[in-house]
Amino acid sequence: MQTALQSWVDRIRAGEMRAVARAISTVEDGRPESRDLLKALFNFTGRARVIGLTGAPGAGKSTLVDQLAREYRRQERTVGIIAVDPTSPYTGGAILGDRIRMQAHHADPGIFIRSMATRGNLGGLARATTDVTTVLDAGGKDIILIETVGVGQDEIDIVRLADVTVVILVPGMGDDVQTIKAGIMEIADIFVINKSDREGADRVEREIRSMQSLAIRSDKWTPPIIKTVASEGQGIAELAGIVAQYEQYLRQQDLLLKKKITNWRERLIEMLRDALLERLLGQRLPDAEIARLAGEIAEHRRDPYSLVEEIIADFTKNTHRGGAEAREKVGT
Amino acid sequence: MQTALQSWVDRIRAGEMRAVARAISTVEDGRPESRDLLKALFNFTGRARVIGLTGAPGAGKSTLVDQLAREYRRQERTVGIIAVDPTSPYTGGAILGDRIRMQAHHADPGIFIRSMATRGNLGGLARATTDVTTVLDAGGKDIILIETVGVGQDEIDIVRLADVTVVILVPGMGDDVQTIKAGIMEIADIFVINKSDREGADRVEREIRSMQSLAIRSDKWTPPIIKTVASEGQGIAELAGIVAQYEQYLRQQDLLLKKKITNWRERLIEMLRDALLERLLGQRLPDAEIARLAGEIAEHRRDPYSLVEEIIADFTKNTHRGGAEAREKVGT
Residue A1: its chain B contacts at CB < 8 A? Predict the structure, then answer.
C-alpha cells in the first residue's frame, strides 16, 4: 500500500497527466485513500502561484482565463485551471464548456483544466478546490488559475483564498446586476474591465475609483484597473504583468506569508467543520437514524435544539463534565 | 432565571413586538441564552405556514412580498417577513431598504419585518433564518415569508427549506442572467412571472413549460405559473390562492409531514455541523491557537490534513480506539 501510494505520488510530482487526473478524482470524491495522498502531497506544495478570478455570468471569465493561461505558457510556465461553476443539473453547461476548453488546449500537456460543477450535501466545494489545488501544486504547475462565477458567497470564499484575486467586470450591465457584484468588490487585488471596447468602460472605471476612495486596505495596496478585450487577447500580457507586480509588492512588504496565514486560518476552520460532520455522520448517525430523528422533530416529539446538544455531548469527550456545564458551553 | 425565561417566552407567545424583537436579536447573535430560549419556544411552533420566495436581483421580490403580506393581512392573518440579503458592507442597501419597508407597515402590529444582511464566519445565515422562523412561529405569526436573493447556493438552501417555495422570474433579462437562475428552477413549487406587463412574459412562460416537460417531480405536482405586476397589486390574490391550493394538495396526498421531515433532515445536519465547530473552537481552539497552527501550515512545518485528524481525534471520544482505526474512519 505504502509503495503504491509512493509511486502514485512520484508520478504526480513528475506531472504525469493520468496520475494527476486520478488524484483529482480521488480527492474530489473524498475517497478513503485521499487523506494519505493529500498528506504525502502537501510536503511538495507551496511553489505554485494561485490566482483566483471571479466575475458575474457573462463577464467573459473563461475566455480571459484561457488567454491568461496562453500568456503564461508563452512565458514557459505550466498552468492548472480549476473552473468552479455550480450550475444546475438542468443545464449541464459547465461540463460541456469544459470539454470544449479541453480540446482547445489539447495539444499542450503544460495545461491542465478541471471543472467542478457539482456540490455535495456537506458543502464540499471549497474543500474540494483546496484539495485539487494541493494536487496541481504538487504536480508541478507553476500557476494555478481558479475561476468562479461571482454570484454566491461560497464562490467568493473560494476565490478569496487565492494568493492574488482578480475581479472581472464588464461595461453595460444594468444596476440590478451591479448588486450581485457588490459583495465581491472588496476582495479584488486587481480589477479587470473586460469587453472594454464596449460603451461604458470608462464609467465602470470611474465607479471603481470612487469606491476605492472610500476604503483603504490594510496592506496599503490600491488595486489597479486593467482594461482587456479577452476575445482578442488585448490587455492580457498587461494583466500578467500586474499580477507579477502585486506578487512583488507582497514580497517586498513581507505580506506574502501574512496573507497565506490568513488564508490557512479560514481553510483550517472549514476543513475542521467538514471533517467533524463527516466523522459524526459516518460513525454515529447513519442516514436512517438522521431520518428517524428528523421525523421526531417534524412531529414535534423532540426539539432539535436539545437533540443537537445531546448528540454532540455524546460525540465529544465532554459528557463527564456534567450536563450543566456542557449546556453552558454550547451557547457561548 | 427560569422565571425570567418563562416570562419572556410568555410575552413572545402573546406576540409582544419588543419581546419578539429581543428574541430575534438574541438568536441571530447566537448569545448564550439563545439555546434555552429556542428549546422553550420550539414546543409552541409548527402552526405557521412558511413560504420561501426567491429570484434574481431586480425581479421585484420586496414589492411582491410586501403585496403578498398585505393580501394575508386582508385575510386577517398575521405575517412575519424575513428578508435575507447578504450584500456588501459597502452598499448597506438591505438595512436601508428594511427601514423604508418597516415604515410602510408601521401602523400594523400584525406584520413583523426583519432583514438579515450579515453573515458570520461560521456560515450562520441558514441557522439564523431557522432560529428566527422558530421565534416568529412561536410568536403566533400565521404566515412567515422568507425572501432571498436567488444568486447563491446558500440563499437557495435557505428558501428551499420552506413549506412552499416560490421562484420569481421577470421578462427581458438576458441569457446571462438566466444562468444565475438555472440552479433555482428545480426548487420551485410555484413560479411567478413578475413585471408581466413587460414584453417577453409569454416567452418566459414557454421556457418554464419546456423545462417542466423534462422533469417529473416525485410528488407529481406541476408547479403553476402565475403572472403578476406586483407594483400594481395584480395577480397577488391569485398567488395567495395558489399557495393555499398547494398546501391543500400536500395535505390531501399526505405529503406535508414528509416534506417537513425532508427539510428537518437537512436542517439537523446543518445545526450539527455549526454546533460542532462552535464547540470545538470555543473549547479547544481559541483564535490565537488557530492563528499559530495556520502559521505552521503556511510555513509548511505541518500538513493541514494530519493536523485536522489529530485535532478531531483529541476532541471526540475515539482516541482510545487507536490511530489506525481513527485514520481509516476519517476517509470514509
Answer: none
Measure in Å the smallest separation between the Cα of A128 and chain B Cα atoms: 13
pLDDT digits (tens, 9 = 90+) for A197-245: 999 899 889 888 887 777 678 888 999 999 999 999 999 999 999 999 9
Shortest Cα–Cα distance, B5 to chain A (Å): 15
Residues present in chain B in total = 332
Query: Which amino acid is present at A159?
Result: V
- Residue A325 φ/ψ region, left for φ over 0, alpha for ψ in the -120 to 50 degree band, beta for the rest: alpha
Residue A264 · residue B226 · CB < 8 Å: no
Which residues contact residue B280 at a Cβ distance below 8 angstroms, ignoring those fewer than 6 apart? A272, A276, B311, B315
Closest CA to A239 of A188, A190, A181: A190
Between chains, do B176 and A211 touch, taking CB under 8 Å as contact? no
Region A118-143: what's the mean pLDDT? 80
DSSP-assigned beta bridge partners for residue A54: A148, A167
In this prediction, residues B122-134 reach a mean pLDDT of 79
Distance set, CA B30 to CA B44, B78, B81, B278, B290 (Å): 20, 26, 20, 10, 21
Concatenate the DSSP letters of all residues of A184-245 into one string. TGGG-SEEEE-STTSTTHHHHHHHHHHHHTT---TT-----EEE-BGGGTBTHHHHHHHHHH
CB pair distance less than 8 Å for A273 and B277: yes
Binning pLDDT at 50, 70 and 90, where does residue A59 land? confident
Q: How far is B303 from chain A (nearest CA, A)?
A: 6
Contact B87 A183 (CB under 8 A): yes
Q: Which of B58, B87, B312 sits opposite A176 (nearest CB)?
A: B58
pTM of the model: 0.79
Count of Cβ atoms closer than 10 Å to residue A145 Cβ: 26
Cβ atoms of B189 and B166 within 8 Å: the answer is: yes
Q: Identify the three-state secondary structure at position B96.
A: helix
pLDDT at A5 over 90: yes
Ranges A82-86, A257-261, B236-240, B297-301, most confident: B236-240
Indicate if the alpha-carbon torsion angle A40, A44, A45, A48 is positive or negative. Answer: negative
